[in-house]
Amino acid sequence: MMTAPGNIVDTGLVNEIRATLKGAIDLILPYRCEVCGRVSDTEDRFGSYNELYKKLYGQVPDLHICGKCISLLNIQDEDRRWFLCLSNPVTGDPCPGLALYMPFEYRGLVEKIIPKIKFGKKIELARFFGCVLGSALRGEKINADLVVPVPLSKKRFEERGFNQAGEIAYPVAKLNGIPYVEDCLIRIRDTKRQSEITDKALRAVNVSHAFVVRDDWDVSGLTVVVADDVATTGSTLHEAAAALYKAGASKVLCVAFAGNRNVKNAEPF
Question: How many Å apart are CA 30 and CA 23, to the nearest integer?
Answer without folding.
Answer: 10
